[in-house]
Amino acid sequence: MDSIKSLLGNKEEEKDQSVWDDRIIGFGICAGLGLFFSFLGFLFLTSPSSFAFLYTVGNISMLCATGFIVGPTKQIKNMAQPTRAICAVVFVLSMVLTLVAVFQDWSVIFIIILIIFQFCALLYYTFSYIPYGRECLRGICGSVVSV
Description:
- By secondary structure, this protein is an all-alpha fold.
- It has one domain (2-139).
- Helices cover 84% and strands 0% of the residues.
- It is built from 7 helices and no strands.
- The longest helix is centred in the first third of the chain and has 33 residues, at 11-43.
């Protein structure tokens, strides 16, 4: 029976491969857009509002890109794990606050503070996926601050 399936082609394997191909394409598009928006943001570094908007859109796109690879449900479950729930909430909240600050035309100083906060939250969130990454990051930051 298996030899007949292999001759005719296993539709389920083709379907699984098609879904995986779609995920890779979605990842590539979102990651490409994320990198593009982030790079474009650095071109507007002298305009904090434009930079903040483009940088945040780039981060959202990159977050969506990883969602394509693991799937949106697993992405949310991973973000809600007890070991990284707080840093995931802080990261998402920092992106939302940055967008609100840009669209509500808040103070430039506050927008710059939110950008720095968002970058730190992204760094801490990213290091939460690396075994002992946050401890290493704390050690690096601690040694830099003590100098």
